[in-house]
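The following block was generated as part of the benchmark described in Methods. Ligand: A2R.
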Amino acid sequence: MKKAMIIGAAGFVGNYLIQYLSEECGMEVSATKLPHEKIENRNAHIYDLDILDKEAIVSLLFEIRPDYIFHLAAQSSVGIAWKNPCLTIDVNIKGSVNVMDAVRELFYRPRVLLIGSGEEYGHIKENETPIGEDNRVRPGNIYAATKACQNMIGNIYAQAYDMQLMMVRAFNHIGPTQAPIFVVADFCRQVAEIEQGMREPVIYVGNLEAKRDFTDVRDVVRAYTLLIEKGAAGETYNVGSGHAIAIRDILNRIISLSESDITVKRDENKFRPVDVPIIEADITKVRELTGWEPRITLEQTIQETLDYWRENIKRGTV
Ligand code: A2R
């Protein structure tokens, strides 16, 4: 039985990945979280780990000896990165280097997947869409810059130390349980609160013109698993749907699923200092290597995310 370790598993993707690896792939899963976090999933052995503590990573790796290591731990919010750049740099760059360096010290070579972001491409030119992995990266925000840096260092480690390190650039992923600091969850939560009469029928929005590439989180974890099994060391793979959609269209789809009469208002706090107009993935590389394609439609993921917020707001569990 293969052993998988997920570093930073208490977040949105981690829970889905634990489920997928244990139930669909029959792997023995170890999952790490920060001491203050909770993982309710019984399908994994749970450990506390702060990636800023390299020695703790080394001890845990020696204890578990995983075949596969999924590195998800990050300060993953673009908005928070603007407000707290140093924390973001510490966790996303220094923390990731700690992980790579701890793996380097092992007496065997596990396969490691570093999760980056489609945001790394940044200011994409019109003729560069959909964007391929070899395109120049021009990060447009602090979060993106830290992930681009992780990618570059990952490439250096893979080559310099002959490590089985693969990099992913994940485009926007969405689905039930995502925190409402991300746009789709935020809109769904607002609509669900309006339906429960908890707020006036007004939805507050940021930049609706930005176009992003959305994939359901369950498709994303399937892609990560295929890539950790089949990816080539030092290579980067885009994981996205291959289609960008304007945030305005997402908003309209969510509103159309509600019977409430909702008006839309701008909230200046939801605007970013700089926003990249379009981010759309070219997914040829992952498709050709693994045969992966997204299976869950945007309609399904939006409906399920809205239903998740409706149920949990009604029950008072969020
Ligand atoms: O920031 P928190 O308290 O939500 O904790 C996050 C955790 N994390 C850490 N883990 C270990 N050591 C640290 N120093 C540290 N700082 C933060 O990593 C959170 O529980 C987890 C990342 O999960 P999410 O923020 O929910 O990200 P998600 O959506 O699961 O994305 C996974 C990966 C990330 O690397 C994203 O940047 C990328 O995919 O898109």
